[in-house]
Amino acid sequence: MCGIVGYVGSEQAGPILLDGLSKLEYRGYDSAGIAVRNDETGEFQIVKAKGRLHELYIKTDGGRTTKGTCGIGHTRWATHGEATEINAHPHYSDDKNVVGVHNGIIENYQELKEKLTRKGYSFYSETDTEVVIKLIDYYYKKYLGTPVDAINHTLVRIRGAYSLAVMFKEYPGEIYVARKDAPLVVGRADGASLCGSDVSPMLKFTRTVYYIDDLQLGKLTKDGVTFYNLDGDEIEIEPKTVNWDAEAVEKCGFEHFMMKEIHEQPKAITETLNAYIKDGVFDLSAAGIEDDKLKTYQRIYIVACGSAYHVGVAAKYVFEKMAHVPVEIDIASEFRYRDPILMKDSLFVVISQSGETADSLAALRLVKEKNIDTLAVVNVTGSSIAREADYVMYTYAGPEIAVATTKAYSCQLINMYLLSMAFARAKGLTSADELDKLIKALYALPGQINEIIGDKERIQWFASQFSTSQDIFFIGRGIDYAIGLEGSLKTKEISYIHSEAYAAGELKHGTISLIDKGTLVISVATQDALYEKTVSNIVEVKSRGAYLMGITNSGNYNIENTVDFVVYVPRTEQYFTTSLAIVPLQLLAYYISLARGLDVDKPRNLAKSVTVE
Ligand code: G6P
Q1: What SS3 state is found at 240?
Q2: Does 2 participate in catalysis according to the annotation?
Q3: Would residue 608 show up in a list of annotated catalytic residues for this protein?
Q4: What is the DSSP string of 468-505?
Q5: Distance, CA 384 to ligand 1 centroid (Å)?
Q6: For 513-559, what is each residue's pLDDT tens digit?
Q7: Among 197, 333, 351, 354, which is best to mutate for testing ligand 1, by the most ligand atoms less than 8 A from CB?
Q8: Are strands 3-8 and 192-196 parallel, antiparallel or unpaired?
Q9: 565 pLDDT exceeds 80?
Q10: Ligand 1 mean position to 433 CA, how many Å?
Q11: To 10 degrees, what angle do helices 128-143 and 109-118 make?
């Protein structure tokens, strides 16, 4: 959702802000804007545009029409008020003394707006952000204090989730940032300081970053960064080094980030495996998890959103079969409001690429209050979920830019396999030989994924035949059902074709009535034990006129008797088939979207990081 950037240094801020915003486009937005303080006149130049960043780029000649070395920028994903130029950020106080951008939602903005109206303020937009900026201005004038005092007074009055970057006319060369439950990172480079909703806008300048905590405040100047607590006292925050490089946020010759990220999966999986497997032995101590501790857990709760939830669905099958641990899985937005009954001797696992998804974070907090151990599977270092969970098992996917996740999903699966193997080992359910076999199978996955990607033209051809479909159904049993859920989500999010995934055995209970002549049904059948059962379901839809695409393991040639188009994936251990069978489905969704001429990386209405509930 909304993206924030800020730069103060010796270079012209405008082009840097525009470039930074382009790195945050993936978060989802519908308007954008920048504010640069003119070094000579002290006036703020605020330029906003509705629509794509390109509009702002044209309007500002790539940021060059603004003059000054200190500025902030924003991509807005509309919540309060439509996506218009007026509602776009930055917002400013009546005298343009305070200018700021905001990500998140201020829950009590109406009440604050009324208070400010009584004090003589007027409002030009429908946003909650304008209210916050004017509240800062109000306290700044009321107490005649510093920007830190004014922002701190504001922080205690506003409720909700937010990150803010603010400039004051009377404080040239300074940017102030603060956050609560929304991401904001501060970066320090040689002769410049930066801020961003994540590190990607600052990778060209620095890898030294500071993760500020809730209700902490930062002051950025050309010469350094200073942090404060809510009392206005200076505090120390340890700098961290980010190991992502600037190339990771560029397309590097690919037409889209999604295709680049599909190709990066083998490397991302290898790096994730290498983090937990040393010299052929795997141990999760990097995540602080000991086998002795795992032995004590009687059940696992897995909670997540979107694709991360689908990882959980696949993992449930793996945990129950391999480690004999009961698993309860839920969508975070449901879990948090259903008063879940949680048993003490359990492990709660939250899965999240961004580590900032509002519902997943809220679910984690709810569980922590009940004193249940929590483990986060997260991709973004220093994110809120990573910081708040008891244990963190990072995925090493690197930055993921395309809204439709591919490589982060694949790495999340790896972490869940490893966790399940650790459970099985701790409970004495698996021999050393069996574990060796599984580790070898895990290390074979990257090469096998490359094989599947090597055949992508065939999938492209198939996608071109079905790019005008009205509906696409996915069916499968067990793990294959979990694969179908993710395949279906990939398809609908970037191709805008209606799609559903069904447990194959459930078809007869209603859905089969939707199958008509030529309806595309994609059946996933990678589980040997369920293969014949799934084939029976395929036959049922086939005889109702469906056009069948099948995904199965190499060697299951008799599927050709039933389906019209087959994609064979290399054989792996039964637990790990999701990692292979998902790849043709990622490619299929990509090529359908491409054939329909859609914006593959930035599908309409979607945001990569959903920081509001
Ligand atoms: C959004 C993204 C999905 C993602 C989900 C959960 O909907 O578009 O790709 O799976 O959020 O995000 P998280 O960062 O928690 O994994």
Answers
A1: strand
A2: yes
A3: yes
A4: T-SEEEEEESTHHHHHHHHHHHHHHHHH--EEEEEEGG
A5: 15
A6: 888 899 999 999 999 999 888 888 888 899 889 999 999 999 999 99
A7: 354
A8: antiparallel
A9: yes
A10: 36
A11: 50
